Each structure stands twice: as structure tokens, then as C-alpha cells.
Amino acid sequence: MSVFDLNNLDLLGTVLSFGLTLIVFSFIFGDNLLFRFAIHVFVGVAAGYAAVMTWYNVLLPEIAVPIIGGSQAERFFALLALVLSTLLFMKAFPRLSGWGSPVVAYLVGVGAATVIGGAVLGTLFPQVLASINLFDFPGSFGNSSPVWVQISNAVVILVGTISALIFFHFGARNRHDRHPERAAWISAVARIGQIFIAITFGVLFAGVYIASMTAFVERMTFSANFILLFFQL
Amino acid sequence: MSDDIKPNNETSPEDSKEFHKSEEVKKSTAEQSFQDNSSDNEPGQEGKNTDRLADAILDDKTSDDVVEKSPVQDSQEDREEPADDQSDREVEDKDQPKHVKGEQEDDTSEEQAGPLVGVEGVLPAELDPFFIHEPVKRSIKLQVTEAQKTQALLLDQMIKGEIEPQPEVTGSKSASNNILRIGIAIFLLVSILLPLSTRVPASITPPISRDSVSANQLIENISDGATVLLSVDYEPGLSAEMDAALASVVDRMMMKDFYLVLVSTVPTGPVQAERLLMYLNQGGGYQYESSENYTNLGYIPGGPVGLLNFAEAPRQVMPYDLDGNAVWYSPHLQNISSLSDFDLVVVATENPDRARSWVEQVQPKLGNTPIILVVSRQAEPFVRPYYGSEPSQIQGLVSGFGVGAFYLNSNAQAGFSSMYWSSLNLALIVGGLLMLIGAVIYAGKSLNTRKPE
Questions:
Q1: Comparing A197-206, B398-407, B425-434, which segment has the lowest mean pLDDT?
Q2: pLDDT value at position B160?
Q3: How far apart are CA B110 and CA B122, in angstroms?
Q4: Helix (H, G, I), strand (E, B) or coil at B320
Q5: Contact check, Cβ <8 Å, A217/B393
Q6: Is B397 within 8 Å of B387 (Cβ atoms)?
Q7: Domain boundaries defined on chain B
Q8: CA-closest candidate to residue B389, choices A124, A162, A117
Q9: What letter would DSSP give residue B133?
Q10: DSSP codes joined into one string, B150-186
Q11: pLDDT digits 0-9 by tens, B44-74
Q12: What is the dihedral of CA A22, B401, B386, A122, to 10 degrees?
């Protein structure tokens, strides 16, 4: 198979993709006009696509269709949403931006309530419970692990959790003729927490490194295959 | 720079006139006292208290003449602070209410005139300027060590440096930077292209993980033709890794003829999902068609709020598919009224926040329906606690390209993973070695720089 076996649209897409890939790779030689062009194209296409998607997937079915052909209740809620959206749009104009403040306040309030409620009930409480359950040895980590492995895991996680939390404790007692300092035992535990945090950052960096390298390898593989197909090698 | 909050004097001019008419002696004393108080307030002092916290952090910096001061400020500060200790003493002194005229008079003094003459402790009928005093002042000076001050200064410089244009590097340094950059690129390119050109099969197989095995078992245990909610929540920038991981799982589900309901909380997600299915149709020989084998409901707006809304009322939030069809009355979806009616939920994302939103907002509404997360390597550390905890909040975890490759090798017919597994391995090793060499060189240079000190 060669690239000329593709239909016109696929061929155009493949050639564009290959060209833009090369342009982005030109950053190896430093910032340049072509690279900036590619970035602007990406931003423009992404914004345009998001706008189209918002229209067809949000505004049309949630606002336009209910107002035109919905029941009375649907029309009411769609009109309410339209009015609130219009008020929010006023934020774009400095002289009228005050009209949008109540809508922003509502959005922030609802968003904060949702996120905080979810974090507390969906993450904090279950993870605290899970940390406690680590010491329920017959039940934790399945029955296959030896007890000493379960104990080790539980202790490491407990020490890591507590020491990392203590690292972010910055309270200090005020002392005469000396700078205020954290208590000695807090400093010692915080240093252990610092080690856990450093390991965590290392793991996160490794993940980002692998993800980035995967994207790089995929683009290089695509480019190599394109050249091979183009020259029918 | 003072360390204290200096309150504004808020006595109105009308009030002052009342006092002037009735008590001439008090007037002169009060005016003198007000002048004393207001002398603490520099012009334009109002509104500057909000900056005091930042100023307090950099207190030593400003007091060491890092910032040039006006003569007025200098004279002001000369009076206030020869040293920190003195300013602290001032703070302590000012914590006590300061009366305008000497000590406060006895509250139990007798009334001297009027119908209440002789009665003790009578409230004054009009405002007495003698009792006007400054509110209690609190110091907001931060108690920080020298090391903390240095770190705060460093952070301040870093933030300021971000918004200032950097001078262009020219000359030999620029040339060496270019050579270094090109050299690294060549090393990485060779490490990627070498396995591709020699067409060497994968020499290192991905590790077999408990996660992928359990995810596989979970899918196997679901009967053929089940209805599955699949959320494609990743950006195009990381589609290389995510496509590879997700393709393996979706391919397995297509083999079992699952009916897929596609959604996304990313605007580009719906088209990513379509592209993935198109690729799997081509690579795996499937005939998955829209509405017959899958439905693409499109983009869920609103972030976590929209997701919660969708979890509570999917029919109302996403009534139509991408083509504008009312899909919930189709034979495959007519029995689905909530997310717990799905047989399985699969979420693919590279973003830990989105993964967390699904766990926090949607998972509690799923009932007995299992949920599998397909995540990028960079999101895995954030998501793993949900999977590894007891009781676990997610029932399956497929992370990254490597696990996807294993999943592919063990089950599926089509996928991306085997194409560049060898190249990725070699590139990761070469990249790691380059970083190690760079770290060693940098450490050596740092040691050489410190020697003279």
C-alpha cells in the first residue's frame, strides 16, 4: 500500500499531519516562524472545533430546541438558562460586567459545593477508611500476601501519610530572644515526610516522561511510515 | 516601613463641629490629639494594608535599602525602627488602648448637672471626644527565619522573572545550547528509528500486572452484547499513549459485541472516540456502525457539575446523540434510565482531575456497576489509591502504553501497542542515560563553582 491508495481526504489529512509534525519538530533548531504558525493553527482549530461542538452539543439541544418546540416547562427553563447566559456574557464588557456577577457567584458557589462535597465524600472519607483498613490484616491486600508484607505496607503507608501531612505544618512557638522554630520532633517527622514527597514527585516526573516520550515515538513512527509509504520502500 | 496596621480616623466633620461649639477647651486638646494620631498615616496610606503581608515577608529586604525610599519615608522610618526589637516593643505598647487625654476618667463619676445630678455611672448624652481612642492594633509581621525569608525572596524573584522579558542569549552560549539541543534530538531520533528500520520485534515484553489481569477478567465476566458507557476524556496531545491503552480494552469489548455509549467531558473527546472506533474497525475487521453498535452522545459540559448532573439524570442531560437523534428510545437504551443500569463503565483519561471527578461524582451513583479507569502513566499515581484501597472505589485499572501492550498481546486482535514498543523502550533508556549524564556534569560544575568559596 502507498499513500496514493488513500482517498483524497485521507491523503490530504496525512500530508497535513506529516507537514505539521515536521514543523513542530523544527523547534529543535530554536523558536522560528513555522513553529509559531503551527502553534497558531493548533490553537485556532481547537478553538473553532470547541465552538462548533458547543453549538451542536450544548446550545442547540439545550436552548434552541426546547424554546422552539419544547413544552411550557422546557421553554421556561431554556429561557431562564438563556437569560443567565446573556447576563454572563455581559462580563465581556467592562461597563456591564456587574450584570454578570450574580451568575458568576452562582456558578462559583455550585461548583465549589459540588467539588468539595465530592472530595470529602468521594475521596477523603473513603481513603481514610482505606488507611484504617490497612491494619485489618486478614482483610487487606487479599489473603495471598504474607502477614509481614501486609504489616510492612501498612506501616509504610501510615508513616508516609502522617509525615507528609506534618511536613505542611508550619506552626511555631514564639520564643524569647530566638527565632520561632518548629518543635524538634515535628522537624524530624517533617524531614521523613519530605523524603516521601520527593519520591512522589520523582514518580510523577517518570510518568510525565513516559507519556511525553510515547507521544514523541508515535509521531516519529508515523513520520517514518509516511516516508516509507510515499517512496514505496 | 511600619509593621503595624494604622487605622483611619473616621470622625466626621459634623461631629467635630458639635464639639467645637460646646467645649472650646476640649476642642483644642482633641485637635492636637487627632493631629498626633493622623501623623502616623502617610498620604495614600489607605488601602495599602492589603500589601502589608507581602511587605512583611520581604521586610528585611526593604529595610536593607534594596528598595529606594523617599526622604519622607526615611524620616518616618527613622522615628519608628532602629531595629526589629524596637518595633516589636512599639507593637506591644500600641496593643494597649491609647487615650487622647491622659488616662480614662473614672466611669463611676457622679453626674454634675441636670435631673440626674449626683447619680453615678450615667452614660454621656453626647459623644465625648476624650473617650475616643485608637482601636487595638495587631502586628501582622510574620515570624519567619532567615532561611524562610530567603526562600520567599527567591519565590518572589521567580514569579517576577516570569513576566519580565528575558534577554536574548547570544554568542557562544547560544551556539553551544543549539548544539546540545540538536545532539540530544539526534540521540533520541536514532534510538527511535533504529528498531523501526531494522524491524526488530519487541525484545522486552511489558510486565504482567495484577491490574490488567483483573480488568480483563472483569470484561470477560460480562455477558456478550452488554451495554457499556465509555468516556473518552483525553486531549489529542496525549492520544498516542491513550489510544494505545484504550484500543486494547475497546477491542476486547468489540470482540464481545458490547453496545458502546460514548461520552466525553472534553470538547475534542467525541471525535477522538470516533477516530478510535474507525481505526479498530479497520485493524480488527469489525463493522461497528453508529446507532446500531454504538451511540456517541457527545460532550458533557460543566466539568464536575455537569458530570454529577449526567450521573443523576443521563436522559435529561444528554437527550440526543451527535447526529441530533433522540437515542434513549432506541432498543439498546430504552431500559437505561440511570448509570447504574449500564453493565460496565469505562473511563479513559490522561488528566488526574478528570479521573477524580468520575470517581467522586459518578462512582457513588453506579450501584453494583463496575468501573474501569484507563489512564495515562502520568495520571496513574493519582488514581492508584482508588484502586488499591480496601474497599476499592474502582474495579479495574489499565495504565499507560505498556499495560495496554500486554493487554493487546494477551487478548485482542488490533491495536497500536506492538508497533512502537521496542522504539519506546530504547528511547526511554537513552533519554534516561542523557539525563543521568547531564546531572553528573551539572553536579561536577556546581562542585567546581563552590570550591573558591
A1: B398-407
A2: 80
A3: 8
A4: strand
A5: no
A6: yes
A7: 13-102+126-162, 210-419, 422-453
A8: A124
A9: B
A10: HHHHHHHHHHHHHHSPPPPP-THHHHHHHHHHHHHHH
A11: 444 444 344 445 444 444 444 444 444 444 4
A12: 30
Per-residue pLDDT band for B81 (boundaries 50, 70, 90) equals very low
Identify the band that residue A11 occupies on the pLDDT scale cut at 50, 70 and 90.
confident
Answer positive or negative: Cα dihedral of B261, B266, B272, B274: positive
What is the average pLDDT across B109-127?
68
How far is it, in rounded angstroms, from Cα A185 to Cα B337?
A: 56
Q: In one letter, which amino acid is B234?
A: Y
Q: What is the mean pLDDT of residues A124-152?
A: 78
Q: Do A121 and B360 touch (CB under 8 A)?
A: yes
ipTM of the complex: 0.85
Rounded to an integer, the average pLDDT of B267-279 is 90
Q: To which residue does cell 422546557 refer?
A: A74
Instruction: Look at chain A and count its residues.
Output: 233
Pick B361's closest partner by Cβ from A118, A134, A136. Answer: A118
A2: alpha, beta or left? (left if phi > 0; alpha if psi -120 to 50): beta
Pick B119 or B374 by higher pLDDT: B374
pLDDT at B193: 86
Mutate to test the interface with B, among A45, A110, A213, A228 (most CBs of B within 10 A): A213
Distances (CA, A) of B326 to A77, B107, B416: 20, 80, 34
Question: Do B360 and A123 count as a contact with CB atoms less than 8 A apart?
Answer: yes
Q: How far is CA B126 from CA A141, B13, B16, B107, in A?
A: 76, 15, 12, 15
Confirm or reject CATH 3.30.70 for domain B210-419, answering yes or no.
no
Assess whether pLDDT exceeds 70 at residue A207.
yes
Q: Could you give the CA distance from residue B58 to residue B452 in angstroms, rounded to a whole number?
A: 30
Residue A76 clears pLDDT 70, i.e. is over it: yes
Chain A, window 63-82: residues with a beta carbon less than 8 angstroms from a chain B beta carbon: none
Distance (Å) of CA B192 to CA A209, B199, B429: 15, 11, 11
Cα B361 to Cα A77, A123, B83, B146, B315: the distances in Å are 24, 10, 55, 45, 17
Over residues B320-370, the pLDDT tens digits come to: 888 888 889 888 898 899 999 999 999 999 999 999 999 999 999 998 999
A116, closest residue in chain B (CA to CA): B360
DSSP letters, A175-224, are ETTEEEE--HHHHHHHHHHHHHHHHHHHHHHHHHHHHHHHHHHHHHHHHH
Among the partner residues A28, A50, A130, nearest to B389 by beta-carbon distance: A130
| pLDDT value of position A5 | 62
Cα separation, B416 vs B405, in Å, equals 8
Cα B446 to Cα A67, A100, B158, B172, B311, distances in angstroms = 68, 54, 21, 20, 55
Cα–Cα distance between A51 and B342 in angstroms, integer?
30
Task: Say yes or no to pLDDT of B104 above 60.
Answer: no
Q: Distances from the Cα of A206 to the Cαs of A54, B57, B258, B356, B411, in angstroms?
A: 35, 35, 35, 20, 28
Give residue B326's pLDDT: 87
Cβ proximity of B41 and B2 under 8 Å: no
